[in-house]
Amino acid sequence: MTLQHLDTPVRRIRGLPAPPVRAFLSRYGLVFAFLALWQVSGTLGWISPAVLPPLDAILGALWTGIASGALVDDIAISLQRAGLAFGAAVALGIPLGLLMGQLRPVECALDPILQLFRQTSALALYPVFILLLGLGETSKVFVIFWATLFPTLLATIGGVKQVDRKLIEMAESYGAGRLQVFRRVVLPASVPAIFVGLRLSATTALLLLIAAEMIGANKGIGFQVMNAQYNFQIPLMFAAILLMAGLGLAANAVLVLLQRRLCRWSLD
Amino acid sequence: MTADTDTRGQVALRHLSKAFMLNGQPLPVLRNLSLDIRAGESLAIVGPSGCGKTTLLRLLAGLEQADSGQVLIDGRPIRGVGTERAVIYQEPRLLPWLTVLENVAFGLEVRGIGRGAAQDRARHHIRLVGLADFEGAYPRQLSGGMAQRVGIARALTVQPEILLLDEPLGALDAMTKLTMQEELTRIWAEEGVTMILVTHDLEEAIFLADRVLVLSRDQGVGPRLIDVDLPRPRDRSQQDFVAMRRQLMAEFGLH
């Protein structure tokens, strides 16, 4: 009998950058290429800078807006609208979802009407909310809340319902009562699903924020996008759009970070 | 009637019957079963799938109710789950968000023991199943055999009189299974518990049990009890062991 060596030495291919650099490039390379193309196509005149200003002009407009305080007010009011709506949606959606997921009769009774509400576009209802609540802040916050509620609510219901029956039975076999089963099994098992809902809700909140501000506001980032376009301040318009994208990324990053802390057991 | 310490863990089945509804027809799985299990005994329940062996174990655990008849533990009829019994399932059923230590302490905490005291007791049983170095690990980091050991430690930590095992080694690979059979024998001897084990592995039944209860799906053939009169520690290749296995296999028409 002979022994064969099956492990061949790993050869490093020459000319490739070190692993961390490579990892960074493979993840963000396309983003940088896209931004570079944007900048170059503007400065070299491939696309009219009046339609698509180069990045430095946009960043310049953004800086001026923030430094002068003009955009800061818009950011503040937008954050307030989206934050209030998101907070209310979470404060209602998670407890209601937990209840509906746990108690079949409650879900049975509430599901049809919720499906009806959910399938009705929030933007289609915006005029109704304006009629009911007036043109002020309330109707704006409410329309965002309305659309933001459903992702969290449905994800929470789904999360509770898909908890492994076998884990619940295990807890019961040790004598756990309903409340203990809920607190020690159902709730922690639902957290990952709830976070999926929260991230969807955050995206929806920002989406509806812009729509609501474009329709009936005189302040806010969404208003700035429309207003800058009317006044042909195209760099400012892009600056406001960029700001929105940044807010979306930041909201997502915060939620991902929170999820990592709360559900270390389910990741990597 | 009070049970003294020597006889704690006695189980008596009295005329147990249980049927399931299948397409509107009652399908009897247990019919008028009576049996006495001694305190500290190791009983294996074998039989083809659908013979009611898992149902019997779930009745003993209090997770299901018999249509008629009684289960008595130390002379008292059971009502639902009880602190003197602990179940070990085929899947380890660990809570993935808890560490090994927290999982093992779970049963005690649910019963109202404080976290510190529960974890102190849990540590003892984690050592007993040989996982002292893995207290802080999460279930997803464990192999199948290790996860099952955690499940066993969790059951032992509540210091049950009766351990109910539902095909506990059924999902493990052949090598791990043999090791775990030895472990179970050792733990059973050390803890002095009554062990009731459902298995479809006849060799496992002979290796672990004092008596084997053979259930059948056939209405005409009643349950049979077979004494495993072999010295411990048992040797799977020993002649008597092999003869015993042949006898048990013949019960199922196997060779």
From TrEMBL, chain A:
Coiled coil (UniProt feature): none
Homology family: Belongs to the binding-protein-dependent transport system permease family.
Origin species: Paracoccus aerius
Transmembrane region(s): 20-38, 50-72, 84-104, 141-160, 185-212, 232-258
Keywords: Cell membrane, Membrane, Transmembrane, Transmembrane helix, Transport
Primary localization class, coarse: membrane
Protein name per Swiss-Prot or TrEMBL: ABC transporter permease
Source superkingdom: Bacteria
Domain ABC transmembrane type-1: 75-255
Upper taxonomic lineage: Bacteria, Pseudomonadati, Pseudomonadota, Alphaproteobacteria, Rhodobacterales
Subcellular location: Cell membrane
Alphabetized CDD domains for the sequence: TM_PBP2
Record bears the keyword Phosphoprotein: no
Keyword Membrane: yes
Automatic annotation (TrEMBL), chain B:
InterPro entries: AAA+_ATPase, ABC_transporter-like_ATP-bd, ABC_transporter-like_CS, ABC_transporter_ATP-bind, P-loop_NTPase
Molecular function in Gene Ontology: ATP binding
Top-level taxon in the UniProt lineage: Bacteria
SUPFAM superfamilies, per the entry: P-loop containing nucleoside triphosphate hydrolases
Start and end residues of each ABC transporter domain: 11-242
Keywords recorded for this protein, A-Z: ATP-binding, Nucleotide-binding, Transport
Family: Belongs to the ABC transporter superfamily.
PANTHER family found in the cross-reference section: ALIPHATIC SULFONATES IMPORT ATP-BINDING PROTEIN SSUB, TAURINE IMPORT ATP-BINDING PROTEIN-RELATED
Protein name in the entry: ABC transporter ATP-binding protein
